[in-house]
Amino acid sequence: MEEIISQIFQVGFFTAIIRIATPFVFATIGELFAERSGVLNLGIEGIMMFGAMTGFSTAYFTSSLWLGILAAMLTGMLMAALMGFLTVSLGLSQHVSGIGITMLSTGFAFFFYRIIFGQPSTLPNIKAFTPVGIPVLKDIPWIGPVLFEQTTLTYLAFAVVPLAAFLLYKTPWGLNLRTVGENPHAADSAGVSVSAMRYQGLIISGALMGIAGAYLVMVQFNAFTFGVISGRGWICIALVVFGQWGPWKSAAGALLFAMIDALQLRLQASSIIDLPYQIFLMMPFVRAMMAVEMRAPAALLIPFRKEER
Amino acid sequence: MSNPDYLLSMQGICKSFGAIQANYNVDLNLSEGDILGLLGENGAGKTTLMNILFGTYQADEGKIMVQGSQITIHSTADALGFGIGMVHQHFHLVHQHTVLENLLVGEPGRMGRLDFSGARRRLLEIGEQFGLTLNPDARVSELTIGEQQRLEIIKAIFGDSKILILDEPTAVLTPYESTGLFEALRALAEGGLGIIFISHKLHEVRNVTNRVLVMRAGSVSALVEDTKEVTESDLARLMCGHELNPPKKNTSKLGDTFLSLSAIKTGDSTHQKLKGINLSVQGGEILGIAGVSGNGQKELADVIAGVLSHTEGTFEVKGEIISKASPRLMQKLKIGRIPEDRMTTGLVTSLPLYVSMVLPWIRRSIFSRFGILRKNEILSFTSKMIKRFTIQATDPEVKTGTLSGGNLQKVLLARELAFEPEVLLASQPTRGLDVAAAEFVHRQFLSLREKGAAIILISEDLEELFALSDRIVVMYEGRIAGETKINDASVEEIGLLMAGATLGA
């Protein structure tokens, strides 16, 4: 038993948690922006996939990882804008539109990858992001290597959380966004454009989802595979519920989930405990189902139409 | 032509929707300190006119001047910018937000941040100036309906609006709260605002306004320059174009007790909407149930209609104890129901009229046999009902939703009265109906009562309750707060009970 514990609770374990959590933080905060404006963005899984693909391709051909990140962001924003057109401008079902966006984006990702790279015998790869240590802080024992020897993207992810909280709760823009998600009629009668706010919420969500997808191919792996996202987007949907639609709690959920993920990887590797890893994957959903005082934004899923005669 | 003294002047406003002329050549002038009543029946064009002023629609013709200069209003934001604030009939508040947050929606921030301290100051200022006070940090979900409306008014004047529009503001208030509202409006007018008060309640218009603009069929039918010079019946005549003719209530003989509820509760202890209801109703009487909406009236109606089962207490229909209620059982026991929301619970708006007309009766052998509809019988029955209740529908096959509100209500009435119910349960049966349609409904109720049926009338309209009921009970927070015979009842007493006072104190 002691052996297990010592094997698990190494510095490397905690470093892994932060690394695994990063894409979840990006995409979960992204989903949060969309949902607080009243749109459930189920396009997340596909948008992450498409972002991963365009990010990878751009980085591959330009040898610039940051251009890749930019490409992934723009891809996400574009697909999210399409989601906005379907759900906000046309007022279609958010479930159907979201699943449609996921299928379309995933299709695009595979299609363009094949067009560009064909079926290579060895996977094309890129030079991945490397950790950037923050001077002085990285030398703190334990905490230093865990928190301050990560990639720049990770630092960005953890800056996104307070930024999201500030935007949502302290700025007029955030209040308007939340109002649109709770009672669009109230926003409308106060002169706030409901559709503009929802588009903005969605486009931000798309940008962050795109970055999340790109992170996976540029940090976690250094190549693009068709299984690169493998349900991570859906987990972010659950994490938003788990986090009660708040940025801090959602990010905490992402960390918790990453811990469980890291744990199950190590337990599997050590093959001491033989538990199917799906048990761990299930946990956020179980928590989401158990959350009694769950309160989604009141206007989530409801298209807004001005009262017409 | 333009008078710079007017705060607001709308001149020659015309607006049509397809073939319907909603506004024709309407002039409206409002000065500082005015409380202008805008009176008219449903469809008279009041709402269209106000929507034009608030930027929801654009007028086809005519001009709008604010403080002497001509403006065009393309959006709600424009209207707010010109100092026009509106209090909608259905509140536009966010229940999860605090009072301050609600006030700050749509406001520019200070240095990119929400200006909480500025809002707090402004709220205090409004409190001092007009006597409108609220706890700035309370969540809207914690406020009473009257307080929520106060917040709506504060919101409307928050950005220094000079023109305040109120759309049927008393529809949701208790009489006591209404009095408070009127006081606030007078204070606002004294403070230099111009107020437009939209209503079809004559006594309120008489009570609170100093001028009245009466609209009928899209045009101005009269402008009363001094409200004190007209009586309520004058206003009614101007509004409807004819004298009011309220139905007379004859005495009727009380029959057996049809329905009795004792100590009825619903739900578990945490979500208890009915907390012990005792109630009985006899044939030949109309039992009025008063109360501000949300005090359990809907649940009570659901229990009686068999939609919701009670968890405690005894529910008897004609001496038979009902243990497992269902809508079908209640139908069999001849309990008819006119639900609160005719569009969703009552009728199927997307299906033909004949379907809505026979929906509860579809299993009767005259309408179906061996599970197959007998369409000819259904159609001829529907045609018969259209004639008997003078429903304005071209034929039984029209889509239900194309009928007007008054006609939809007639469809419901026709359907429920067709097979002579012994108990009729009616929730807000005249809400949103014009005077003529409401009178029609009232007449039907009274004639049913004379035939010996029992009628339970749930209404927020005290005038209606006093005109029809034999007894009135008041519901407050899931209980019966009091009961009086109609001859002993006073509006004040009922109003106090509705607000939660206990009698005998």
Describe the protein.
- The complex is a heterodimer of chains A (309) and B (505).
- Chain A is mainly alpha-helical.
- Chain A has a single domain (2-123, 133-290), classed as ABC transporter involved in vitamin B12 uptake, BtuC (Orthogonal Bundle), CATH 1.10.3470.
- Chain A has helices spanning 2-8, 11-36, 44-62, 65-89, 94-117, 143-147, 152-170, 172-182, 184-189, 194-220, 232-242, 247-270, 278-290; strands at residues 132-133, 149-150.
- Chain A has a two-stranded antiparallel ribbon.
- Chain A is globular.
- The N and C termini of chain A lie far apart (71 Å).
- By secondary structure, chain B is of the alpha/beta class.
- Chain B is 33% helix and 24% strand.
- Chain B has 17 helices and 22 strands.
- In chain B, strand 7, helix 6 and strand 8 (194-199) form a beta-alpha-beta unit.
- The A-B interface holds A 170-172, 174-176, 178-179, 182-183, 185-192, 295, 298, 306-307, 309 and B 17, 22, 48, 56, 75-77, 79-81, 86, 88, 90, 92-97, 101-102, 104-109, 112-114, 155.
In short:
The complex is a heterodimer of chains A (309) and B (505). With 309 residues, chain A is mainly alpha-helical.
Question: How is the topology of this model organized?
Answer:
The complex is a heterodimer of chains A (309) and B (505).
Chain A: H1 2-8, H2 11-36, H3 44-62, H4 65-89, H5 94-117, E1 132-133, H6 143-147, E2 149-150, H7 152-170, H8 172-182, H9 184-189, H10 194-220, H11 232-242, H12 247-270, H13 278-290
Helix pairs in contact in A: 2-7, 2-10, 2-11, 2-12, 3-4, 3-5, 3-10, 3-11, 4-5, 4-10, 7-8, 8-10, 11-12, 11-13, 12-13
Chain B: E1 8-17, E2 20-30, E3 35-39, H1 46-53, E4 61-66, E5 69-71, H2 76-81, E6 84-87, H3 99-104, H4 116-130, H5 145-158, E7 163-167, H6 175-190, E8 194-199, H7 202-208, E9 211-216, E10 219-224, H8 232-240, E11 257-265, E12 275-282, E13 286-290, H9 297-305, E14 312-317, E15 320-321, H10 327-332, E16 335-338, H11 342-346, H12 353-358, E17 368-369, E18 372-373, H13 375-388, H14 405-417, E19 423-427, H15 435-450, E20 454-458, H16 462-468, E21 471-476, E22 479-485, H17 491-498
